[in-house]
């Protein structure tokens, strides 16, 4: 338990960096030939959380190479691929340990891993597990059936705390080292500022999230930075902070213009850094830097057979199946985060991206080209 707490704390603080762990097969409990087989990425924090969720079960856990990146980012960016899953299935020895051929993959891997491809090349059927590892026990009790809650990404207060800490820790550590030489007496106030503002921005997220606009057209890079293209919410929060700062300085009798300007500029820099890609720091919005945020998913009703793959992998519960007409519907299309999982998994190619100009991006392009760091589909994934 202590080790788990330490790992969670340290790796949450350093969450913005890759944390690879050893790939291979892990036995949970005393698995036999009928025990379930799970697979995940080799991001260490994810592996530890999955192992904790599997505690008390008898199962096999396959850790595939994702270059130390978390499942969603690695799969979307072409770092957690069909080849990585096929490789771990073939080299881990799990095929000699079980009689079945079913592997449970994390749902968020569906943006980059094609279930049809895995089954075609290995004979293993992919079952998409829940979004969060904590739901695995209930998922197993439900006989591998997911509820809509298990399929949906959320931005809970615990997740917001983790993201705030992820932003605050590295910058406060760097600032503390610099302040030793430049402004030693201000180390504690600066660190307090660097922790306080990220927590203010992310903990208050539910209060302003509905005003964020991922569809707003992109401006030039410099202008984007200065006027907060994703909306002026962070600037408003900074304004409230400035009012607090002025009020505090008056109360303590230290209301010099230099004091207010110095801390005002410093806090503005912190706000700009933390909120530069505010939407991209959340799981419920597409990054403001990604051009894909302007695309929409279009359904070709003539091709759709109502198989329900899109419903099973959509992390925002955009889809519902019309069982009478055997067709997918998108009653919550406005919640789409353009992850492309539905397009990748549809066996009938009934879904595709469409640009604001009506240009069609076919499914084969989404499967083949993944997003690079700045959101361009330039990462070519070869089918091995």
List the helices and strands and how they pair.
Blueprint: H1 2-13, E1 24-28, E2 37-40, H2 44-53, E3 59-63, H3 71-76, H4 82-91, E4 102-105, H5 115-122, E5 125-128, H6 136-141, H7 148-151, H8 157-182, H9 187-203, H10 205-208, H11 221-227, H12 233-251, H13 257-275, E6 296-299, H14 309-313, E7 320-322, E8 327-329, H15 341-345, E9 351-354, E10 360-361, H16 363-368, E11 369-371, E12 377-380
Parallel strand pairs: 2-3, 2-4, 4-5
Antiparallel strand pairs: 1-3, 6-9, 7-8, 9-10, 11-12
Helix pairs in contact: 1-2, 4-5, 8-9, 9-13, 12-13
The count of domains is 3
The main sheet comes to: 5 strands, mixed
- Overall pLDDT score: 90
Question: What is the element string, with H for helices and E for strands?
Answer: HEEHEHHEHEHHHHHHHHEHEEHEEHEE
Looking at the structure, the CATH topology of the largest domain is: Rossmann fold
Please give the alpha-carbon distance between the first and last residues. 40 Å
Helix content: 40-55%
- In the CATH hierarchy, what is the architecture of the largest domain at level 2? 3-Layer(aba) Sandwich
The chain-level structural class is alpha/beta
Number of strand elements: 12
How many individual helices? 16
Please state roughly what percent of the residues sit in beta strands, choosing from under 5%, 5-15%, 15-25%, 25-35%, 35-45% or over 45%.
Answer: 5-15%
Order of strands across the biggest sheet? 1-3-2-4-5
């Amino acid at each position: 338990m202590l080790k788990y707490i330490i790992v969670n704390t340290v790796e949450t603080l350093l969450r913005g960096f890759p944390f690879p762990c050893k790939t291979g097969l892990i036995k949970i409990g005393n698995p036999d030939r009928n025990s379930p087989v799970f697979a995940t990425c080799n991001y260490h924090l994810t592996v530890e959380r999955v192992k904790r969720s599997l505690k008390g079960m008898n199962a096999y856990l396959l850790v595939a190479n994702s270059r130390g990146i978390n499942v969603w980012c690695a799969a979307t960016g072409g770092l957690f691929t069909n080849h990585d899953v096929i490789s771990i299935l073939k080299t881990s020895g799990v095929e000699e340990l079980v009689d079945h051929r079913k592997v449970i993959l994390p749902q968020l891997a569906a943006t980059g891993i094609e279930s049809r491809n895995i089954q075609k090349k290995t004979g293993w059927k992919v079952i998409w597990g829940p979004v969060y590892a904590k739901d695995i026990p209930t998922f197993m009790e439900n006989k591998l059936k997911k509820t809509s809650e298990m399929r949906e990404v959320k931005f809970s207060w615990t997740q917001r705390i983790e993201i705030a800490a992820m932003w605050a820790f590295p910058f406060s550590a760097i600032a503390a080292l610099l302040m030793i030489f430049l402004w030693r007496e201000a180390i504690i106030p600066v660190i307090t500022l660097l922790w306080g503002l990220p927590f203010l921005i992310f903990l208050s997220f539910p209060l302003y999230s509905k005003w964020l606009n991922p569809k707003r057209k992109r401006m030039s890079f410099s202008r984007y930075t200065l006027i907060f293209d994703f909306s002026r919410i962070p600037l408003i929060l900074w304004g409230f902070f400035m009012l607090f700062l002025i009020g505090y300085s008056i109360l303590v009798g230290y209301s010099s213009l230099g004091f207010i300007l110095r801390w005002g500029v410093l806090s503005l820099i912190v706000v700009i850094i933390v909120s530069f890609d505010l939407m991209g720091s959340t799981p419920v919005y597409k990054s403001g830097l990604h051009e894909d945020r302007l695309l929409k998913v279009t359904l070709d009703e003539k091709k759709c057979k109502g198989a329900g793959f899109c419903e099973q992998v959509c992390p925002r519960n955009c889809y519902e199946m019309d069982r009478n007409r055997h067709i997918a519907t998108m009653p919550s299309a406005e919640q789409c985060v353009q992850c492309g999982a539905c397009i990748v998994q549809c066996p009938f190619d009934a879904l595709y991206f469409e640009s604001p100009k009506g240009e069609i991006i076919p499914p084969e392009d989404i499967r083949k080209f993944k997003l690079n760091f700045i959101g361009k589909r330039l990462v070519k994934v070869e089918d091995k």
